[in-house]
Amino acid sequence: MKDDMMKVLSLLNSEKNYESIIDFTSNILMEHPDDIKVYYCLAMAYIAKGDKTKGLKHLQNLITQSLSANKEDKLLRLFINQVILQTIQITELSLHGGDVLGANTIQMVKEVKLYAHKLGERDLEQIAENILKRWIHINSSNQPIVALIPDSPLTLQVEPTNACNLNCTMCPRSKMTRKVGFMDTAIFDEMLDGWKNRVIVKQIQHLIFGTTFPLIKRGSIKLFFMGEPLIHNQLDKLIESGKQAGCTVGIQTNGITLVNKEVRQKLLSAKPSVIGISLDGINEMSYEAVRQGARLLDIYNGLKALHKEREEMNLHRKIWIMISSIIPKWNQSSLEHAQKFLEPIRPFVDHIGFIPLSRERDPKFYDENGKIILYSKQPISSTSKLQSLCLEPFTKLNVLWDGSITPCCYDINCAMPLGHIKDGIDNVWKSSKVKELQDALLNQNIKKYHLCSVCMSNTKI
């Protein structure tokens, strides 16, 4: 029976009939829930058809289930060890951030490495060794930190311009002292040329049938930093270049120029994966007081037209329109006020997300009555205790309009320069400056990094 079952699965797998594999294995597992190899075939079918979330969940459940399996069965144990390492490799192809794997997972990899060494399985031992180099594991204050440090950044936040058409009360641009300018398309293209992780294609091998299928991970580019992207007259060229290089490209905008049809048409024709619009307030007065220079009616009309034209161009499955709304306090009252305010535009967007007000620099913002007030800097607990690990310097670089590179989205004046795109993105990433910063964050020894100290302590900027 088992041989016949595996023949059927092998045939379906060679035909790439993953839906049938899912149906077939799901039925078998109802009667034989402990069959690890059938469970593996189910997980890989999900991954091969493009549903990495479900596939990884099944692989993780399989690993948990197998830990109580017969450890005397060397072939089964070797198979499970291969599954553990493959699961982590697939997980890496799903990430844009770190601190995902638990300390127990790292311990499992260490055990796999030891077991592979004992059996003389050099290839398996080498895979485990490479994973342990990428996933850094330390203990601080008796709490484990696990952070992925890839060999090339996963995300680039790129500044098309640091010029802006608004004067928002909470924006740190008023403290910006560097020159205002617009990114040249040649700088953008040079940036892409020096970035290996703009697209990764990895062949995944089925551990039972030996067949392979490709998994693609696209580097992420976010076009936004200290200015308004839509006032860059070649923004569409930047988006198109990023997409041609294999990346996913999104923008974040204040949205006021979307009232202009030509701007909308150029943007939609470039096909960014995400168009994010920043829209805050609990009424027209609070919105226009915070986003000084904007008119709420223009935002509504621009969003409505953008949604309509996206549908007409049949781009609703390719371009995601979302709203990001800052709220003064992370509580139910603030959320309810903001949700009520944004309700009229809900039909024209795919998602509305809320962000608590960043109080790094004593911002002015609306209160729960819509009045503009000065907020004091947010008190932060002492750095003698373990802080949340800042993930930006582990997976991301920020590229300013002139090609300068900084590690931090709060570094408005490039006070912590890491290099320039002419050095090559990957060369900067592997530089001693980046390595020293990562080590300092992991070990919470950040005294010499002024911006990090401000971010993680009570020091005033």
TrEMBL record:
SUPFAM superfamilies the record matches: Radical SAM enzymes, TPR-like
Name of one Pfam family that matches: SPASM
Top-level lineage group: Bacteria
GO molecular function: 4 iron, 4 sulfur cluster binding; catalytic activity; metal ion binding
Matches recorded under Gene3D superfamilies: Aldolase class I
Entries under PROSITE patterns matching the protein: RADICAL_SAM (PS51918)
Keyword S-adenosyl-L-methionine: yes
Swiss-Prot/TrEMBL keywords: 4Fe-4S, Iron, Iron-sulfur, Metal-binding, S-adenosyl-L-methionine
Essential cofactor(s): [4Fe-4S] cluster
Name the UniProt record assigns to this protein: Radical SAM protein
